[in-house]
Specification:
heterodimer, A: Uridine Diphospho-n-acetylenolpyruvylglucosamine Reductase, domain 2, 7-stranded antiparallel beta sheet, 5-stranded antiparallel beta sheet, 20 strands, B: alpha/beta, Rossmann fold, 4-stranded parallel beta sheet, 18 helices, 10 strands, globular
């Protein structure tokens, strides 16, 4: 569906000829293959998100505002995205306008003294982190990695990641915000709204963080966030990461106040106890069950491949037959990674001692193989920069999480084995990668300890293979049914079901309402409905902003 | 290969945008974090490897058709391979550089050509060069050198000057110096003069596969007739063509870039520097010598899934990800020249920013090509260097033109120029 010529010309006047296109080939590069990830709609073989009516690349807040006002005038849906990690950044309905925010990519300020940065949507984690490190600061990176927009994580989606523990989820970190609201009005929130600068998200101006973000973020369906400030946190390391090594086995050797450990436990209860003790003790810079995403049976073999530039996936089977690899794989069955960072030498010594005590009390141990210098330094760089998240798709080209067990450490730990056994049985069907059932990955808690762990059980498949895609879909449906049967609540495959319909694109409103009513906290969606009614009267967003009307 | 052979890769592309950035582990600043000139300049997703996979899928599915925009999307790719390196930090079963080459091949096969490229092709057919110059003037650069002229004379080592060095008069000094210093070190070296032919690497990068094969076979035959055992070149494009592409057509000749040969001679004590060259320089890695300068590894295999859905290859497929390109020899040479201080740019080695001259971009999109060079010059200036040194005449010409256009003061040298200064005692 194309735009009327007069509207197209008006948009062209706003952004300039070189920043708008309705060429089909360009539009098709703004569609997401739905065979990729269930959480983001699919998997549906050979199906993509709808083609937009035009793609625009605004260069300023004023341009965004003019576009949004025009869209309201002509009732045209629009969708803004910055780094396009997932299908949720793309229009979910035909005829919408895609705003690609990549031209607005400036770091406007790094306030060293007050420890925050002011950024535009196109700023990615890697560049903000690199600039922050120059002044002894760091930014939290979302679990999707450093390729993603920091603003998007702070304003529009989830924002959880390995450094939750010390750096805070991005919902914690969002400060002042500039918001081109769905009507085209500009709202500046927090201290920014009172003309006091960017330093606070809650006041003295209007506190709109909850309204702007909603549950898990509005995912681009409620206007456009054009600038925001995010909290930064201390980085007692070098101004530039001294990366060395041969691609892709890059690694970094950091000073003695940095320690990277992979630790494992004799039972899931011990695993959870250790998480609680870490929080109680207040140690740790980041903590994540990371490399298990490759699978309980494959993870150490994959570490061997990734730390050796001469190896490829073709070496996997041979490595799996290596008794030493088998021993380490068995040893690290119930593991996670943790990085301790001392602000002083005394601090790291104390953290190290406290962590040893936690291991002693829980019966846990450090996986010695992960302390080999080259593996240790690779692991350190991987977790601090989070620049290898594309490994999510390394096996067959696609992945998604089933059983998104989001809750306290005990919650996931209590169900991990059952969920893993269930998935392991499905792996035998051949549609997904046979990795040992347990491919659960996720952060260990929220800021300052406590909060939640996320157990996202990675399911890797081939998006080009129809049988693989359909088999994966069947697994997800079965996982949904099991989660409901066991009372585990909304899992990732359920999030998928909320958004997808029989054509792979949208779900009828009646069906969505039924699903939202069945969630543990349906009022959240009723609240979002009221927010939408009040702030988006022409309903120019899409179904990714989940609402319930009753 | 055909474009259809990349349908699976198009579906399996991670859509992660890693192809737009240098490997994230190497990011040192906001300013110099991007790797792909095409998406950095044009901004639409389509101008990245990720976008080109999507465009390929769209074309294969018949969802879009050839337009000027589609031609631009394909032909603005410099085929510098930066996307390929970044993609392969994580992926073992995607080859975005090969995909975009195949996209160009398909456009050419379907007659979707650019006039500027066709002019180059006509020159290649009539005069065996890409410079639209008479073949009779090709050997003029070597006048007075008294160097064996193959095939009439004999030599173990052939020095291949290449089109740019042969016809760009201001660069003649570099190849004259290269031949002179190699001969001075006792290397049994000759040239082909007017009989030398284009390597055709550049037309391959434009999408003219058939023209490439014709020229490659002609060169291989000429070398065989001349009894050459080793080909040395100072051109990174030529090096890549001879080293990586020709073996697919049966060439078994040893291929060396001048920097490899000079580094070897220095190590063997056969080249001695007599004077200082007091200069702070930064080194620009040419794409075709660096990340694309890895040796060819023959492979004839098929995809094989293990563990249900893990994509591997039987036999194991060679992995070209820039790990084993030619990065150290030029740096060793520079560090060995008395007085030279080497300072590095942020984007180096396998994640170096392109000069902007490749893939037919210099010929068809001069403004964009100049912008790409200017970006690199800005990066060089940030190091405090007074000169950029490289090992490819195409890079050097593009930098010199961009510097002239902007009135910059940065100097540009081929590495051989500095070696010559240090040997000859020139100030």
């Amino acid at each position: 569906m194309s735009l009327p010529k007069d509207i197209y010309r008006t948009l062209e006047d706003i952004v300039g000829t070189e920043n708008i296109s309705d060429d089909p080939a360009i539009l098709d590069s703004y569609r997401y293959s739905l065979a990729h990830t269930a959480i983001h709609l699919g998997p549906f073989y050979d199906t993509c998100t709808p083609r937009g009516a035009a793609v625009l690349m605004p260069g300023s807040t004023e341009e965004v505002q003019a576009i949004v006002k025009l869209c309201n005038k002509h009732k045209i849906k629009f969708k803004a995205s910055s780094t396009f990690w997932s299908a949720q950044g793309y229009p979910s309905e035909d005829g919408a306008i895609q705003l690609d925010m990549r031209r607005m990519d400036r770091i406007l300020d790094i306030d060293e003294k007050n420890m925050f940065a002011v950024i535009e949507p196109g700023v990615i984690g890697a560049t903000l982190q690199a600039e922050a490190m120059k002044v002894g600061l760091n930014t939290h990176l979302p679990g999707s990695g450093c390729s993603c927009s920091i603003l998007a994580g702070a304003t529009s989606y989830f924002g959880s990641g390995p450094s939750n523990l010390y750096g805070g989820w991005h919902y914690d970190n969002l400060l002042g915000l500039e918001w081109v609201m769905p009507t085209g009005d500009i709202l500046r929130t927090g201290s920014l709204g009172a003309g006091c600068g960017w330093f606070c998200g809650e006041g003295p101006g209007p506190s709109m963080k909850g309204v702007a973000r909603g549950f898990l973020g509005a995912k681009g369906a409620m206007g456009v966030f054009t600038k925001c400030a995010v909290k930064l946190f201390a980085w007692p390391g070098p101004a530039t990461l001294p990366t060395e090594g041969t691609i892709p086995a890059y690694r970094v050797k950091l000073p003695d106040n940095f320690k990277a450990y992979t630790v494992a436990f004799p039972s899931w209860k011990a695993w959870a106890d250790a998480a609680y003790m870490i929080w109680d003790t207040g140690i740790g810079y980041l903590a994540h069950r990371q490399f298990n995403m490759f699978g309980r049976e494959l993870k150490h073999a994959m570490v061997k491949i990734l730390t050796d530039p001469t190896k490829t996936l073709s070496d996997l089977e041979t490595l799996l037959e290596d008794p030493e690899v088998q021993r380490i794989t068995e040893e690290s069955m119930r593991d996670f990674q943790i990085i301790l960072v001392g602000m002083t030498q005394r601090d790291i010594e104390w953290q190290d001692k406290a962590f040893d005590e936690i291991l002693a009390r829980t019966g846990g141990w450090k996986v010695e193989a992960m302390l080999e210098p080259e593996i240790h330094d690779w692991s350190m760089l991987y977790l601090i920069r989070l620049g290898h998240k594309n490994l999510n798709l390394v096996f067959g080209g696609s992945y998604d999480g089933c059983f998104g067990l989001l809750g306290a450490a005990d919650f996931g730990a209590a169900h991990a084995e059952e969920a893993s056994e269930f998935k392991k049985e499905w792996e035998k069907h051949g549609a997904v990668v046979q990795a040992g059932g347990d491919c659960m990955m996720g952060p260990i808690g929220g800021q300052g300890g406590g909060g939640t762990c996320l157990w996202e059980n990675f399911t890797c498949f081939d998006p080009h293979d129809k049988e693989s895609v359909e088999g994966t879909l069947a697994l997800f449906d079965a996982a949904t049914a099991m989660g409901i049967d066991r009372g585990w609540g909304v899992g990732m495959e359920k999030w998928n079901a909320v958004a997808r319909g029989p054509d792979g694109k949208t779900t009828p409103k009646e069906e969505r309402d039924r699903m939202h009513k069945d969630t543990p906290q349906p009022s959240m969606f009723r609240y979002q409905h009221k927010v939408r009614e009040a702030l988006n009267p022409n309903d120019l967003g899409d179904a990714y902003y989940e609402t319930l009307e009753d | 290969m055909a474009l259809e052979d990349f349908a699976a890769q198009a579906d399996r592309c991670s859509q992660c945008s890693y192809c737009k950035w240098i490997p994230f582990d190497q990011v040192k600043s906001w300013r110099f974090a991007k790797n792909c000139p095409s998406i950095a300049y044009h901004n639409f997703n389509s101008y990245s490897a990720r976008g080109r996979y999507a465009v390929t899928r769209s074309l294969l599915h018949g969802d879009s058709a050839y337009t000027d925009t589609v031609r631009d999307i394909a032909y603005t790719c410099l085929t510098c391979g930066a996307c390929d390196v970044s993609c392969k930090v994580c992926r073992y079963n995607l080859d975005p550089l090969e995909m975009v080459r195949e996209l160009k091949f398909r456009l050419v096969e379907d007659g979707q050509c650019l006039d500027e490229h066709l002019a180059v092709i006509r020159s290649l057919r009539s005069d065996q060069n890409t410079m639209q110059q008479p073949s009779s003037a090709r050997g003029a650069w070597a006048e007075g050198l008294d160097v064996p002229l193959l095939p009439a004379d004999k030599a173990e080592v052939l020095f291949h000057a290449g089109c740019r060095f042969s016809f760009d008069r201001s660069l003649h000094k570099t190849v004259r110096a290269a031949v002179t210093l190699l001969r001075g070190a006792g290397v049994d070296i000759g040239i082909m003069g007017d009989w030398e032919m284009c390597c055709a690497g550049r037309v391959y990068a434009m999408g003219y596969r058939d023209e490439f094969e014709r020229m490659a076979r002609a060169n291989i035959a000429a070398w065989t007739r001349a009894g050459v055992k080793t080909v040395v070149t100072s051109c990174a494009d030529g090096y890549h063509a001879f080293k990586r592409l020709y073996p697919e057509l049966g060439s078994q000749i040893e291929v060396l870039h001048t920097v490899e040969y000079i580094a070897r001679l220095i190590e063997q004590g056969r080249l001695a520097f007599r004077s200082e060259v007091p200069m702070t320089v930064t080194y620009h890695d040419p794409c075709h010598l660096g990340r694309q300068g890895e040796p060819y590894v023959p492979w004839d295999g098929v995809e094989k899934k293990i563990k249900g859905q893990i994509i591997t290859y039987e036999p194991p497929k060679p992995r070209y990800n820039g790990a084993w390109g030619i990065y150290d020899p030029p740096r060793e040479i520079l560090r060995s020249i008395p007085g030279v201080e080497l300072v590095e740019m942020e984007r180096i080695r396998e994640y170096s920013w392109c000069c902007g001259a490749g893939g037919g971009v210099r010929e068809a999109y001069p403004e964009y090509s100049s912008w790409v060079a200017s970006e690199r010059i800005e990066e060089a200036k940030a190091t405090g260097a007074e000169a950029m040194v490289s090992a490819c005449p195409w890079c050097e010409r593009n930098f010199m033109d961009a510097i002239d256009a902007k009135g910059e003061t940065m100097q540009v040298y081929d590495i051989v120029d500095l070696v010559q200064r240090a040997i000859a005692g020139e100030a």
